[in-house]
From TrEMBL:
PANTHER family in the record: CENP-V_GFA DOMAIN-CONTAINING PROTEIN-RELATED, GFA DOMAIN-CONTAINING PROTEIN
Keyword Nucleus included in the entry's annotation: no
Domain CENP-V/GFA: 3-115
SUPFAM superfamilies associated with the record: Mss4-like (SSF51316)
Organism for this UniProt entry: Albidovulum sediminis
Pfam families for the chain: GFA (PF04828)
Name by which UniProt lists this protein: GFA family protein
PROSITE patterns membership: CENP_V_GFA
Annotated Gene3D superfamilies: glutathione-dependent formaldehyde- activating enzyme (gfa)
Keywords: Lyase, Metal-binding, Zinc
Similarity comment: family membership: Belongs to the Gfa family.
Length: 149
C-alpha cells in the first residue's frame, strides 16, 4: 500500500510503501517518551521505499535496553517524529509513526510489543468517558465549553 505523510507544520513530507498487516503498537518506555503518549503505533516501510519529498530531517541515535542503536528522525521545526531505523546507510527498513501518515485510518495494529511496560490504565480505556471534541481550557486549567457557557 502506498502511503504519504507529513509533519505537523507541513515542512516535511514523505511517501513509502507499507504492508497494512504489519502495523504494531510499541509500549516500550522509549516509545512512550518519543510519542508523548502511552505507546507508539508504527508500520515498517518496505526496504528502500521511503522517500523524503520535502524538508529536512534532524537525526539522533538512541541505544535501547537491548543495546541496539536506533536512528530517530524528526522535523527540526515542529518536532514531529518521521521515522526510526537501524543505524546505517540507505536503503533500509524504516518504522513510520502511523499518526504522521495521511492513510492512518487504514493502518490497524495487529500486534503489541513491550507489553511489560504498558500503562496499566490502558486496560480501562473503554470505561473512560469520551467526548466528540475537546472542551476549552482556560489559562488556569479550568475546563469549560467556551465563551457562551
Amino acid at each position: 500500500m502506498k502511503v504519504d505523510g507529513r509533519c505537523h507544520c507541513g515542512s516535511v513530507r514523505f511517501e513509502a510503501e507499507v504492508d497494512p498487516a504489519k502495523v504494531v503498537i510499541c509500549h516500550c518506555t522509549d516509545c512512550q517518551t518519543l510519542s508523548g503518549s502511552a505507546f507508539r503505533t508504527v508500520v515498517p516501510a518496505a526496504e528502500g521505499t521511503f522517500r523524503l519529498l520535502a524538508g529536512r530531517l534532524k537525526r539522533y541515535v538512541k541505544t535501547g535496553e537491548s543495546g541496539n542503536e536506533r536512528e530517530q528522525t524528526f522535523c527540526p521545526d515542529c518536532g514531529t517524529p518521521v521515522y526510526s531505523a537501524p543505524v546505517g546507510p540507505q536503503p533500509k527498513v524504516v518504522a513510520l509513526p502511523v499518526g504522521a501518515i495521511r492513510q492512518r485510518d487504514a493502518l490497524v495494529p495487529s500486534d503489541q510489543y513491550w507489553s511489560r511496560s504498558a500503562q496499566a490504565w490502558l486496560r480501562t480505556l473503554a470505561d473512560i468517558p469520551a467526548r466528540e471534541t475537546q472542551p476549552a481550557f482556560g489559562a488556569r486549567g479550568e475546563i469549560g465549553l467556551g465563551p457562551a457557557e
